[in-house]
Design brief:
single chain; about 270 residues; alpha+beta; four-stranded antiparallel beta sheet; 10 helices; about 60% helix
Length: about 270
């Protein structure tokens, strides 16, 4: 059921992504940034009908790189997202929902940000710069929204040079809105601390040891039941949180888990390299 739910979320995110592009941005020749934005620029300069093909072709090498660096499950969900987005881009008609490019930028950015945020929470991504951002933020403490805003800005500057600075400025508004909504939907802090209270100490410890970060075990007692429990503490990144949650629930579905934002870690903290 968990896998089916994740797949459903990814498909829904792909539908949102394609809808934001086809209904709000592409009719005004605006950009969302990222690979979708780069594909849109090429489409605006050549033939807009082939934006979906450009989108898929530009994502392909990034997905292959991510499969090596990031992990199999994350990339498989991302491949599903890119494939579904490509399909929806071909079947959703291009309709100008609003005649105002500013409104199109804002609402298009919100819809696409929802697609990105939901995909990340399901353990995948919408492909493109999301994967590049995930690779970079595993090694550097940079908020995902900020990183996407920088990379998207480069694409938008390209639109300004080759097309129109008015469109570029409107597209910049879209990426700003998108970066803020992504951070609102997803977990804003890069690192999080997880406290896991369980009676399955050895099984849980054995499972968590398979993950890349250390674990601290503390003996605990129930305040009402006075029964003995074990509390396991680990610090991880928000992009590994979906995998950690899956490991906990598979080991002990009755475990109590508290996830806290972590501003700073002093000492050894293993990064994925």
């Amino acid at each position: 059921m968990k896998r089916a739910r994740d797949v459903a979320v990814i498909v829904l995110s792909a539908l949102l992504m394609a809808s934001g592009l086809r209904l709000f941005l592409i009719p005004h020749q605006l950009l969302s940034g990222g690979v979708a934005g780069a594909a849109s620029v090429i489409g605006y300069l050549t033939n807009p009908q082939y934006i979906s093909l450009f989108y898929f072709g530009m994502n392909l090498p990034i997905l292959i790189w991510g499969l090596v660096v990031v992990g199999r499950r994350y990339i498989l969900l991302s491949i599903l997202s890119v494939s579904c987005t490509t399909y929806f881009l071909t079947v959703i008609p291009q309709i100008r929902v609003t005649s105002d490019p500013i409104l199109a930028s804002i609402f298009g950015g919100v819809i696409i940000a929802c697609a990105i945020g939901f995909s990340l929470r399901a353990g995948g991504s919408t492909g493109g710069f999301d994967i590049l951002g995930s690779i970079i933020t595993r090694k550097r403490d940079i908020p995902m929204g900020t990183l996407l805003f920088i990379m998207d800005g480069i694409v938008i500057l390209t639109l300004g040079f080759f097309k129109s600075w008015d469109l570029a400025l409107a597209a910049m508004l879209c990426t700003f809105v998108k970066s803020k909504v992504v951070d609102m939907i997803h977990i804003r802090h890069v690192k999080v601390t997880c406290f896991i209270v369980t009676k399955e100490r050895e099984r849980m410890l054995g499972r968590l040891k398979l993950l890349p970060h250390g674990v601290t075990v503390v003996s605990a007692e129930g305040g009402y039941s006075h029964e003995g429990n074990s509390m396991l503490m680990t610090v991880t990144t928000r992009y590994e949180l979906a995998e950690l949650r899956k490991a906990i629930l598979e080991t002990d579905p009755k475990a109590f888990v508290n996830v806290l934002e972590t501003v700073e870690v002093v000492g050894r903290f293993r990064r994925l390299g």
